[in-house]
Amino acid sequence: MNEVEQKMAKSLVSIFENVLVAEEKSLRQGYFNNLSLAEMHTLDAIGPYESRTMTETAQILGITVGTLTVSVDRLVKKGFIERKRDEIDKRIVRISLTRDGKLAARLHGKFHKVLATRVLEPYSEEEKALLLSLVEDVEKYMKTQVARYEDKDKLRQTAREVAEDSRRRQTDG
Question: Domain limits at 33?
Fold first, then answer.
């Protein structure tokens, strides 16, 4: 890895880790300090307006329904989520945010808004547009990388391709 690639790798990891630490610390010091970051992201995935099925919510979070059930059970006990059977198809379980759940999600959304505002603040409008474009490009790339691992049948093939690509880049670089 050349020097620029090393700096980029270090910065990406640092940004990721620091955003998570900042989110966690803001939760711990805030009104909703009884929520974990994962629970807060579950509230965000459910959303403040409509009820969602467990399956829809699990897909948004990229987790299994079983994993979501554990989180939802805790959030119901804490009073942030309501669980109801669908009116038409009783097999379907719908989850929605309570008043406290909506408030927690709104405050967490404010954290993200302040983060974005403060990151963009020192830049001109042109620089903001360029930075946004670059970050969106990184986001697209990361989504394609995640998608490569989605198909379990192709997982070994994908792992081989990533390893071969990495070796090829090392010998070419």
Answer: 3-122
Tens digits of residue pLDDT in 77-136:
999 999 998 888 888 889 999 999 999 999 888 999 999 999 999 999 999 999 999 999
Residue labelled with tokens 């805030």: 30
Q: Which residue has the tokens 């979070």?
A: 61
- Which residue do the tokens 């099925």 mark? 53
CA distances, 41 to each of 13, 17, 22, 50, 109 (Å): 20, 16, 14, 16, 10
The answer on 38 and 117 residing in a single domain is: yes
Specify the CATH number for the domain of residue 113: 1.10.10.10
In sequence order, the β-bridge partners of residue 93 are 85
* Counted domains in the chain: 2
- Are 30 and 50 members of one domain? yes
Residue 50 falls in which region: left (phi positive, over 0), alpha (psi -120 to 50) or beta = beta
Task: Select from 74, 85, 83, 78 the least CA-distant residue to 100.
Answer: 78
Q: Give the span between the Cα atoms of 90 and 118, in whole angstroms.
A: 46
* 118 and 133 housed in the same domain: no
